[in-house]
Structures are given as C-alpha cells and as structure tokens.
C-alpha cells in the first residue's frame, strides 16, 4: 500500500540536495514498510526570525509526527480490511488516509521548500521557473502578492501551493483545505502551511505578517527541481 | 439596514476569569482580534451585498454568500461560545445544581455524564482541521425521535449549526487559535479542561427554550 502510494526513497535521499529523485518527495522515507518522520536538513532555530525555533520544533516533532503515526495506523487498518475483503471498511478509512497521508506529504514537501538564509533561503528563482513566474504573474513580487492573497483567503485550516498543471505545463496557485494533498492533475512546486499551528506562537492573529516573512526562507532551488 | 452594523458583544466575565483553563492572553486575542475580525468582515460583506442588490448584480451577490456564511458563522459561533462558558468553580459550572433537566437527558442518552464527556471528546478530537464541537438538542420528531433528543455534532471552519441538525446547547471552539498559546498540540488537555468552565445554567436554558437569538443576533 505505502509503496504504491508514495515513491520509496532511501535514507541517503533525506537531504534535499542529495536526492536521487529529480523532483517530489525526496524526504519521504520508510522503515520496515512504515512511514517515518523525515529529519530536517536544518536546525529548528535556523529559520528565525521568520519562523521561531519553538514553532519549528513543535511543528515537526509533534504535529508532523502525529500525522505519520496516524497514517501508519490507518494503513494497518486498511491492510486488515483488505485481508478480510471488507470493502466498506476500506472505504471508511479513506478520510483518515487522505488527512494523515496528506499531512505527511504536505509537511515533508514544506520542510524541503524552506531553507535558512545562509543556505539560500529567500534567494529568487532562476532559469525556467523564473521565466514561468514572470510570464504568468509579471514578476516575482506580483506572484508573492497573489500567493499571499490566496493564503489570507483560506477559511479555516489549509495550504496554498504553487502547482504545475500536468496537462498544460502551466503554473498556478491553488489552495487546499485541511491536509488535502496536491495529487492528480497538479504537481506541487511550493507549499505554504496556513494552519494556525504554523505561525500562532509567533504571530497570533497577525497571519499576514507570517505570510510576508516566510518569503525570506523559501528554498527556490528546491522549487526549481520540482518544476524541472 | 445600511447604516446598522453588527458589533462585538462584551464578554460576560473578565478576560482572566477562565484561568487556569483558558489563559487571559488567549481570551483577549480570541475576543478582541479574532471575533472582532469576523464582525468587521461580516459588516463589510453585508455592505457589499447591499450594493450588489442595489445594482441587481446577481453574480456579485452569489460570490459574496460564502464570505457572509463564514463571517456570520464566526460571529454566531463565538457569541454562543462566550455565553456558554463560566469561571471555574462558579455556580453555573455545577451541572447538578444548574442543569437538572439537561443532566437527566444526558444520563438517558449516554448512560452517564462521564460517558457523554468521553463521547464528546472523541468526536471533537476526530475533527480534521478547524471547526467546532457542539451538544445540540433536536425537537420531538426531528431525526425520527419521539421526544427531544441530544446529539453531539461538529461543524467545519465557521459553519454554524444547521437548524436541521438541532439547536446548540453549548459549543467548544476547536480552532487552534482557541487553545494553542496554552496547550500547543495537546488539544485533548484543552477539551478535558473545558468541563471546568462549561456554563451549565446557559446550557439548561438553551436546552429548554432554545438559543437567545433575540439578544444575540439582532443588529
């Protein structure tokens, strides 16, 4: 189940730069068939002052870990249901797979598309991605404005993504509720977590400040690799 | 209509009155910032709606509906929430003294107050994303029951309780902003703590007579 859902990669692929896969889930790791929490390639405090060390630590060790645990539990239950040919039980587990598997995918991509300033965080994109952003939005700043407007418009928990349409190759901004993952027609390029737990300890209700500050630590090199 | 505005209702207690269950800082931001923003955005959306109606611009009217629902829901839900809370150890937090009729119905429906609390917690912790947990009462005949029937329901984001699902008796805000500064990811501890600050007198009143819409939702 797990291996058919997600590309399996090895521990050596943990760090974004060392990934053998050109795009996508280089941090997605499994041990004995189970999803595991990927290590961050930077320290918890490395994204300050954009994102506090305390937020990063809770977000990674508590929130992301819980999605991993609950995803594994749901997969186990679905395997049991499959073994019993219990179709109703398998269907009933779909929301748990979507939510917890989505939470695992989204956070894994998110950690990878962030980087400390001294490791290239915030350095603007170049090459084909820069061209696509300029052609689509006029400028990088205008893209950021549009992305921030999309983020601010999320009613409840969710994510905003820069995506690539697999049919047309066009890039676009899409928002997703809760932990709905970017799958199907669109390839995730850059994700920003708009759940309150992603910013509340530092920014409280001033989420616009968080959306503004996070551009200082966006890892555009990672986004370029996903776009390629 | 055009000149009327919804306003932030004052809390029926001080910002620090729910400590140690809910911190003063949470209450202050939650009321003065979050709830105020729903009120402000609701007024703005209604003003836009009035303009769109004037202009007979139906596409604009339709585009506004989700915005109105979200912000009106946020205003309704928070207004209900503040009133169904009470300082720890205040008389209203004693269910036996304050809510004999509701307590009897809870016992009948779930077997015991503890069993109800367990079921309520389980339902709330299963919410995926932002939303609310509610104890609701359904009128006789609603949902096929012969008498009044209690149910636990959740609503997503700021959706208010649909009248088809019953009348809110009390609500618990499960948005992360309601607990994160104090409980972080431990939302189970937040839900456990809520039982010390539920205003059972208000719950009993809603159980018997419905929600206080007259004072709550009029301009």
Automatic annotation (TrEMBL), chain A:
Alphabetical UniProt keywords: Antioxidant, Manganese, Metal-binding, Oxidoreductase
Record-listed E.C. numbers: 1.15.1.1
Any one GO MF annotation of this record: superoxide dismutase activity
UniProt xrefs under SUPFAM superfamilies: Fe,Mn superoxide dismutase (SOD), C-terminal domain (SSF54719), Fe,Mn superoxide dismutase (SOD), N-terminal domain (SSF46609)
Principal EC category: oxidoreductase
Positions bound to Mn(2+): 59, 107, 193, 197
Reaction it catalyzes: 2 superoxide + 2 H(+) = H2O2 + O2
Record-linked Pfam families: Sod_Fe_C, Sod_Fe_N
InterPro entries xrefs: Fe/Mn_Superoxide_Dismutase, Mn/Fe_SOD, Mn/Fe_SOD_BS, Mn/Fe_SOD_C, Mn/Fe_SOD_N, Mn/Fe_SOD_N_sf, SOD_C_sf
Span of domain Manganese/iron superoxide dismutase N-terminal: 36-115
All copies of domain Manganese/iron superoxide dismutase C-terminal, residue ranges: 125-226
Names of required cofactors: Mn(2+)
Signal peptide: none
One annotated Gene Ontology cellular component of this protein: mitochondrion
Chain's role: Destroys radicals which are normally produced within the cells and which are toxic to biological systems.
PANTHER family the UniProt entry points to: SUPEROXIDE DISMUTASE 2, SUPEROXIDE DISMUTASE [MN], MITOCHONDRIAL
Family the entry assigns: Belongs to the iron/manganese superoxide dismutase family.
Annotated protein name in UniProt: Superoxide dismutase
UniProtKB/TrEMBL annotation, chain B:
Cellular localisation: Mitochondrion matrix
Known catalytic reactions: 2 superoxide + 2 H(+) = H2O2 + O2
EC number: 1.15.1.1
Chain ranges of the Manganese/iron superoxide dismutase C-terminal domain: 101-206
Cofactor: Mn(2+)
Keywords (A to Z) from UniProt: Manganese, Metal-binding, Mitochondrion, Oxidoreductase, Transit peptide
Binding partners and assembly: Homotetramer.
Family annotation (PANTHER family): SUPEROXIDE DISMUTASE (PTHR11404:SF29), SUPEROXIDE DISMUTASE 2 (PTHR11404)
Protein name: Superoxide dismutase
């Amino acid at each position: 189940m797990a291996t058919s859902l997600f590309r399996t990669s090895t521990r050596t692929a943990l760090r974004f730069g060392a990934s053998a896969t050109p795009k996508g889930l280089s941090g997605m790791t499994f041990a004995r068939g189970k999803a595991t929490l990927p290590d961050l390639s930077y320290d918890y405090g490395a994204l300050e002052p954009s994102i506090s060390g305390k937020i990063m630590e809770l977000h990674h060790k508590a929130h992301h870990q819980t999605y991993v645990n609950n995803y594994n539990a749901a997969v186990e239950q679905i395997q049991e249901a499959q073994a019993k040919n219990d179709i109703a039980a398998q269907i009933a587990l779909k929301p748990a797979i979507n939510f917890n598997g989505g939470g695992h995918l989204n956070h894994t991509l998110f950690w990878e598309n962030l980087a400390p300033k001294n490791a290239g965080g915030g350095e603007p994109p170049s090459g084909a991605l820069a061209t696509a952003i300029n052609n689509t939005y006029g400028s990088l700043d205008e893209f950021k404005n549009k992305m921030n407007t999309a983020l601010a418009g999320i009613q409840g928990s969710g994510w905003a993504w820069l995506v690539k349409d697999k049919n047309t190759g066009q890039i676009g901004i899409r928002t997703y509720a809760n932990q709905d993952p970017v799958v199907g027609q669109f390839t995730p390029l850059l994700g920003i977590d708009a759940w309150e737990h992603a910013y509340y300890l530092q920014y409280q209700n001033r989420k616009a400040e968080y959306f503004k500050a996070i551009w200082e630590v966006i890892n555009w090199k990672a986004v370029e690799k996903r776009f390629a | 209509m055009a000149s009327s505005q919804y306003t932030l209702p004052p809390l029926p207690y001080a910002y620090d009155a729910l400590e140690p269950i809910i911190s003063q800082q949470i209450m202050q931001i939650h009321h003065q910032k979050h709830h105020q923003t729903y009120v402000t955005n609701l007024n703005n959306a209604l003003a836009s709606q009035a303009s769109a109606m004037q202009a007979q611009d139906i596409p604009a009217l339709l585009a506004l509906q989700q915005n109105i629902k979200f912000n009106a829901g946020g205003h309704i839900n928070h207004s209900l929430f503040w009133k169904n809370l009470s300082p720890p150890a205040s008389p209203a937090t004693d269910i036996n003294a304050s809510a004999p009729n509701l307590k009897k119905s809870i016992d009948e429906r779930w077997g015991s107050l503890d069993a109800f609390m367990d079921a309520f917690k389980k339902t709330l912790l299963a919410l995926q994303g932002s939303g609310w947990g509610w104890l609701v009462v359904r009128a006789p005949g609603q949902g096929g029951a012969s008498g009044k029937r209690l149910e636990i329901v959740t609503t997503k984001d700021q959706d208010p309780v649909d009248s088809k699902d019953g009348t809110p008796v009390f609500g618990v805000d499960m948005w992360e902003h309601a607990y994160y500064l104090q409980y972080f990811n431990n939302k189970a501890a937040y839900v456990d703590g809520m039982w010390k600050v539920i205003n059972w007198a208000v719950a009993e009143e809603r159980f018997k007579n419905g929600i206080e819409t007259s004072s709550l939702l009029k301009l």
